[in-house]
Amino acid sequence: MDMQHAVRAACQYVEAGIKTSIDMGKGSGPINHFHSTYSLPFAPGHFLEYVLNRPDVTLAWRQYTEHEFLSRMADGTLPLGAFKKYLVQDYLYLTHFARANALAASKAKTMDDIAKSAEVVLHINREMSMHIDYCNSFGLSKHEIESEEENLACTAYTRYVLDVGNSEGWLALQVSFAPCLIGYGAIARRLYDSPKTVRGGNKYWKWIENYVAQDYVEAVRTGSELLEMHAVKQSPSRIEELIHIFIQATQLEAKFWDAGLANAG
Fold first, then answer.
1. Nearest-CA neighbor of 97 among 51, 54, 160?
2. What pTM value is reported for the model?
3. Cα angle vertex 68, ends 85, 201, to 5°?
4. CA-based nearest residue to 259, from 101, 7, 127, 68
5. H helix or E strand, kind and range, residue 220
6. What distance in Å separates the CA atoms of residue 182 and residue 102, rounded to the nearest whole number?
7. Rounded to 5 degrees, what angle do the CA atoms 41, 64, 199 make?
């Protein structure tokens, strides 16, 4: 671990110790040095930060979030045909994403988590209506979109997520969603803030704006908090299994961009 990450981890350790300190005697009381005695490799509330800083995640994450497809969207050089193909496959993906969240509701153990999954399905339904409107602006009709077949990248990714949902529990399914939810937010924020991104006259600028909009930022925040809340309840060995799912899903996200770029000519 390099110095920067070591200092950050130490600060997080002390912060968690203060937050979970025991109220004894007068004053603020002693720091709870035993808040992580179950040996989780991250302080409470820092699961995702730990995941994204792991060497076995970093490469896959960079290949996904800094893909050439995205760079060419940012500078406006991505061929329109490639983007339209992506829009079609993204719509087909959202259909299976809704199915997976419905499955998550059946896997949940509390009404709060069941309700959250149901809300996501309804949100996806609203998002798909907006997606159709966005596709219409590129000359794509709903009939055309729904008549298209899934490409192999879409099939591989969506069936992996559904397989995780069928073979594992609720949290594993949430982790398989995470690269999509969190990644799109991170991608859009990076492109939105980059001085290299072309704004005026860039037909893909609206896509970037959609994923830095407040409703999507709020969805990322809610999803992240949910993962943080449940991650601290897991064993170290289970954390490793969940991270493997995260890596697989991230790699499949990158393949989604690969498929789009294959249509770029």
1. 160
2. 0.83
3. 70
4. 68
5. helix 214-231
6. 20
7. 125
